């Protein structure tokens, strides 16, 4: 199993190119199930989750071709020969649940393994299922699988989500594009990745309005067609490297980063004493003065993203004064706390809040990654710590960050990937 060895203390300076967004790319790949024509996606990140989604689409019989031979442009399409999403793939990647709506819409049937919980929470899919039932699906749970049928096709309806779930919004949105009549999704999630999906679906011939608002209106169409679409830049990767500049007192230009997607993150960075300058097609992030403690609460977009919580916690662990981070999206997303404390941080968790008392310095230690963003928080801590940090279980990181060691080493970090 691979590990990262990080020797802390280097100030990071230079340019990092931000890749395509994992959380947009995965859903855009799934959108390929909605048409028999070719969907060509560019700016594809080379990460493990994209490879897993490729396996899943191929399991459905759909072709996924690497057009340019470098994994950056994928052409997806063809006949669906299986409506089953098996346990071994779904258990690797929860986003697999998103094939449910498109399969139902196009094939009128789907058999998808229940994803179960993961390191950050129980993560039920009740809103996905209830919403699809409202659109006329008959759903049965059997042997750990969701068996869904819509013999006469799905029918547009008004669906009110009790919580603005990203995944439920996307599943229902994709299902509704091929349903009969009008669907309204009320209390829809407004994440930029959903807007990217809507843009692509509309280009494919879907009739969706309300993108970026809490109500999506979808007028179903007979069929969608193939298009080309470039995946948006990854706002979470961008925010993560912004924290790398913040924690090391560095100066990074994040090429491709879009300030408009990062409002709450930029506000929190600035409050913490990190300067952020929006440039054309880039964001420059630097810190000269001290880091200051800030209070943060995670919320659905446009609030502060839960996917940036662990990285901010690492950065605030060496800030002047205290910070409080409240996690409202997932019930168990503090697994990085004991690992950060092993590196000398002073963090206490009280229910859904963590109190971070800034320390003068962290010290390197062997630590273990527990999930994707938690893994990066430990890298950030390692970059700022005295001495050597050895981060194991980095397969979590490979799910969603491309070439972390190469990108960080290019801006001055002492980081090395080693295999046992
Ligand atoms: C692949 C992807 O895009 N993942 C993102 C997506 O996850 P995901 O789509 O799973 O996140 P959701 O917005 O659906 O989940 C938010 C909360 O709602 C709960 N819930 C959700 C659905 C449901 O049917 N019932 C239910 O109770 C979840 O357990 C969680 O506590 O949005 C999250 C919130 O921004 C991000 O952290 C993830 O990175
Ligand atoms: C939680 C995340 O992803 P997933 O929903 O795929 O687990 C994430 O990207 O931080």
Automatic annotation (TrEMBL):
It comes from the Bacteria. One of its GO terms (cellular component) is cytoplasm. It catalyses: phosphoenolpyruvate + UDP-N-acetyl-alpha-D-glucosamine = UDP-N-acetyl-3-O-(1-carboxyvinyl)-alpha-D-glucosamine + phosphate. UDP-N-acetyl-alpha-D-glucosamine binds at residues 94, 307, 329. GO terms for molecular function: UDP-N-acetylglucosamine 1-carboxyvinyltransferase activity. Its EC number is 2.5.1.7. Pfam families: EPSP_synthase. Phosphoenolpyruvate binds at residues 22-23. The modification 2-(S-cysteinyl)pyruvic acid O-phosphothioketal is found at residue 118. One of its GO terms (biological process) is peptidoglycan biosynthetic process. Pathway: Cell wall biogenesis; peptidoglycan biosynthesis. Residues 7-407 form the Enolpyruvate transferase domain. It is found in: Cytoplasm. Keywords: Cell cycle, Cell division, Cell shape, Cell wall biogenesis/degradation, Cytoplasm, Peptidoglycan synthesis, Pyruvate, Transferase. The active site is at 118 (proton donor). Cell wall formation. Adds enolpyruvyl to UDP-N-acetylglucosamine. HAMAP family: MurA. Belongs to the EPSP synthase family. MurA subfamily. This is UDP-N-acetylglucosamine 1-carboxyvinyltransferase. It comes from Acidomonas methanolica NBRC 104435. The gene is murA.
